[in-house]
Specification:
single chain; 154 residues; alpha/beta; 3-stranded mixed β-sheet; 2 helices; 27% strand; globular
Length: 154
């Protein structure tokens, strides 16, 4: 999910299936797609340092934000960055229904959540756009035949 006009927009980027957590987060931190596809889109997330995510069998994802993550980020971008992370994880990871953070984070309402307080898609409904973007890419297989792939991503 990337940002357009202050809302989170679904963008499908080509990723391996099933996608691994590090690949999903890296695709999100790489930023918006280049070219026409990325026109009008932006990200609130810094490219580095890489964000770490751990999941457990209870349907919970824990995002480890580095110290100082919000230090240079505008207050409005803080809620958008958290929204990008939460919505991307919850819409792309099977069996995960809640996301927690190792630091207090801000909901779209401006409410500060405590460390470890679970967040869900419902917490970010006000930030979701009805717009979505899909890309198709051709990937060569080991037998050199081409197949169209549209695996979900950020």
């Amino acid at each position: 999910y990337f940002i357009a006009n202050g809302k989170l927009v679904s963008v499908t980027k080509p990723l391996p299936s099933p996608v691994a957590l590090p690949q999903l987060m890296a695709a999100l931190q790489e930023g918006e797609p280049s070219g026409d596809l990325g026109t009008g889109l932006r990200t609130a997330l810094p490219a580095v340092p890489a964000l770490s995510v751990q999941t457990d069998a209870t349907g919970l994802a824990l995002v480890i934000l580095p110290d100082g993550f919000f230090d240079t980020m505008a207050a409005n971008d803080q809620r958008l960055a958290i929204g990008q992370i939460v919505v991307t994880l919850l819409t792309n990871l099977r069996g995960v229904g809640q996301v927690t953070f190792n630091q207090p984070v801000t909901k779209p309402s401006g409410e500060l959540t405590a460390i470890g307080q679970p967040l869900t898609l419902a917490d970010f409904e006000t930030l979701l756009s009805t717009r979505s973007i899909t890309t198709l890419t051709t990937i060569a297989t080991t037998t050199s035949s081409a197949v169209a792939s549209s695996t979900s991503g950020p």
